[in-house]
Amino acid sequence: MANPQEQLATWQKAALESTLSYAQASISSAEQMLKLNLEAARNSLEQAGKNTRELLSISDPQELAQLRTKIAQANMQQSASYAQNIYEIVSQTQALLTKLGEEQYAKLNQEAAAGAEQLGKGAPGAEISAAAFKSTLAASNAMLDNLNLAAKQFAELSEANIKAATAGMFKSPKK
């Protein structure tokens, strides 16, 4: 059996690496969101200036109505595109964090199974307890796998619905 101090140091190192991985993923996501927001602000400012110049140059009321409709549609498209970009960043981050969590859970399961085996070797009759623990662990893993599968299916369905809604929202009317 491993020295308890060495085992504790190993666990602490693994916890540190895990924490750093989560922090790096979060910072990367925040960086993407910041870039997206700055780009959206820049584009909005440029578009507002362009729209204002166009509005000031119009003297015909019909042209004004047409331009207002054009501006409103462009703004709605930009908003939908912005929302889609946010959704993609959040989805990517969520997938990465889920993967990291699954890796940590798998590692924990391996260590728990190894610990149960060590326990089973040490005392008479402990094999039964170790087998029961392993059985419980296997059942928990099966349940978690089913939950993960359901969550992934829900995420895929949600993404498909969002893409379909965004694509159908801005079809140009035929004249």
Report on the architecture of this protein.
The protein is an all-alpha fold. It is 91% helix and 0% strand. The protein contains 3 helices and no strands. It has helices at residues 4-57, 61-122, 126-169. Helix 2 runs antiparallel to helix 3. The longest helix has 62 residues, at 61-122. It is elongated. The mean pLDDT is 83.
Features:
175 residues; 3 helices; 0% strand
Helix/strand layout:
Elements (H helix, E strand, L loop, with lengths): L3 H54 L3 H62 L3 H44 L6
Helix pairs in contact: 1-2, 2-3
The termini sit apart by 79 Å
Oligomer state equals single chain
**Integer-rounded radius of gyration:** 28 Å
**Beta fraction:** under 5%
Compute the average pLDDT. 83
Question: What share of residues is helical?
Answer: over 70%
| Strand and helix order | HHH
Helix and strand composition category: mainly alpha
